[in-house]
Amino acid sequence: MSDNSFVVVANRLPVDTHTAPDGTRTWAPSPGGLVSALTPVLEKHQGCWVGWPGVVGDAPEPFRTEGGVLLHPVKLTQADFEGFYEGFSNATLWPLYHDLIVTPIYSRDWWQAYREVNLRFANEVAAVAAPGATVWVQDYQLQLLPGILRQLRPDLTIGFFLHIPFPSPDLFAQLPWRTELVRGLLGADIIGFQLESNARNFAELARRQGLEVTGSVRTRGIGTWVSAGDGRRSGIGAFPISIAAAAMADLTPADLGGAERLHAELGKERTVILGVDRLDYTKGIHQRLIAFEELLETGALDPDQVCLVQLATPSRERLEHYRTTRSTVEEAVGRINGRFGRIGQPVVHYQHTSVNKTILRRYYRMADVMLVTPFKDGMNLVAKEYVACHGDNSGALVLSEFAGAAAELTQAYQCNPFDIESMKKALRDAVVGLKQQPDVLAQRMRAMHEHVMAHDVDLWASTFLECLSTAGADRQAQ
Ligand code: ADP
Ligand code: G6P
């Protein structure tokens, strides 16, 4: 499909642009799970992607990526960046939807910026989408877009997917613009959430706002309908997102050799524990370091026999809570190495950078234990990526029960990241289990690997798009 009959719109494009001092423009993959998941889907459909190119004040002409995706950059000014992106999206909605891990800020100026930028995105999409096209709107930054687009282009079939959690109606009720946001979302023919609990929260909220809600929530299907107030209805369902599992699992001899060398550099006989996250306060990086430190302190783990590698992608770096999270994490890394490392042999290896997918897969493969400990996460693709890279059934996953992935990866060592003792126990059980119960661990990994391979991002996209197509056809038939 190259005629713009399938359009995805997300705040971010899959690549960010950088301009060198001599004016040369380069592109690099942009951060986050949304981009990781949608890139293979768009390449398969040869679709069109409308989004922001990651820099302020610049929107290059549309162009096609090597993978065949047509990119339509949307410009954000400095004021948009501060009010819409840093402000309303990431200092209001992000903490509110992640259950108030930090306190959301409610600013009327940011709300205005959010409305204006949603309107701009809607105008861009209305201009590029072919007659009768399917438009798939992504994530919390663009929740007003379905409603605006419905007005501008009633011919379109519009889907919306929320990549992050949807909070309980009691929390959502804090938002001064709660009615407008719900109305915006209901412009979509279907609204997808990661988990049934998220979808139920939305259905309950709609009920409290006096809208008619029928049916009960299902996974990978539409079981609930909410009246949209204009004679239409929107379908609600849970669609757990996933990864391009076959590509992730396909480790070449060079990858396997690279993984082995990486492990050898860290210490052939040492147990390597890995964390891979955007540097975000939702991810629980500091708490996992504390758990590790306490296990070293009590002698439950021996610093000569284990080490922890933490890769942290820079994220939203101007926001206060992100800055304090970074300094807390980096202080802990320094302290733990000062206490338990030796010259030339740190016990925590920390890198504040992103790495390319080839290198990342080698890290996943070489890691004996993966630590995924968010306080709250819509899904968490890192957990699924690790499992996909362990088709040989090696390794162990320590996983927060508050990650969406915990509903599927039930064979992980699950823990409560708010409870340091629970994290310590899960980590210690995983490390000890590798030595003492290798068969049990292999069985656990096998079950998780099979699940991830059978529930990949293709399944996610195809089930969502099938439901959307049916809902769009039903609306037109009415
Ligand atoms: P989020 O979307 O909140 O960042 P996810 O775990 O769902 O969390 O997705 C993160 C994505 O970013 C994954 O695809 C992961 O591979 C990638 N990623 C995270 N940290 C790094 C890193 N340091 N280097 C490269 N990729 C990373
Ligand atoms: C999460 C969000 C995405 C976002 C990504 C990176 O995955 O769900 O919408 O794009 O984080 O965050 P950023 O603010 O850099 O776009």
Automatic annotation (TrEMBL):
One of its GO terms (molecular function) is alpha,alpha-trehalose-phosphate synthase (UDP-forming) activity. One of its GO terms (biological process) is trehalose biosynthetic process. Pfam families: Glyco_transf_20 (PF00982). InterPro entries: Glyco_trans_20 (IPR001830). It catalyses: ADP-alpha-D-glucose + D-glucose 6-phosphate = alpha,alpha-trehalose 6-phosphate + ADP + H(+); TDP-alpha-D-glucose + D-glucose 6-phosphate = 5-methyl-UDP + alpha,alpha-trehalose 6-phosphate + H(+); CDP-alpha-D-glucose + D-glucose 6-phosphate = alpha,alpha-trehalose 6-phosphate + CDP + H(+); GDP-alpha-D-glucose + D-glucose 6-phosphate = alpha,alpha-trehalose 6-phosphate + GDP + H(+). Belongs to the glycosyltransferase 20 family. It comes from Corynebacterium lizhenjunii. This is alpha,alpha-trehalose-phosphate synthase (ADP-forming). Its EC number is 2.4.1.347. The lineage of its organism: Bacteria, Bacillati, Actinomycetota, Actinomycetes, Mycobacteriales. It comes from the Bacteria.
